Amino acid sequence: xxxxxxxxxxxxxxxxxxxxxxxxxxxxxxxxxxxxxxxxxxxxxxxxxxxxxxxxxxxxxxxxxxxxxxxxxxxxxxxxxxxxxxxxxxxxxxxxxxxxxxxxxxxxxxxxxxxxxxxxxxxxxxxxxxxxxxxxxxxxxxxxxxxxxxxxxxxxxxxxxxxxxxxxxxxxxxx
Length: 175
Known about the structure:
By secondary structure, the chain is mainly alpha-helical. It is built from seven helices and three strands.
């Protein structure tokens, strides 16, 4: 195990996430808002965009940070960087995970926007259930899909700690 690589992986995680996942919101807010608006504009031709609000059919849809889900991207990055793997697999799995989540998040927002505009009776319940349970399940599903597709056989953080623990045990035996 490359101890220096391990150190830098965790240092990168801390640096990117402090004090909050601002970087993810900076990157993924426009990558989410503009495709959502473009799709909704096809469905509702009179829709227009005003900052992070999409106005259509006398309804206003605000894409707040929770809709962008920057914390979910950060969790995917944590899972990736806390798992030992070679750089090529790491980059491919990150691209897969971020792209998958972005695509599915855009579809989710478009679907809920259409349900909201259509006056779906159970909109609030469906929206909250998807937000609280669905987002976590989606991150887990994407991580397991990446692990399967890229043949990742190690466990995030656990494998690193297990390796470090065994290394320190070997160092103590030598003394």
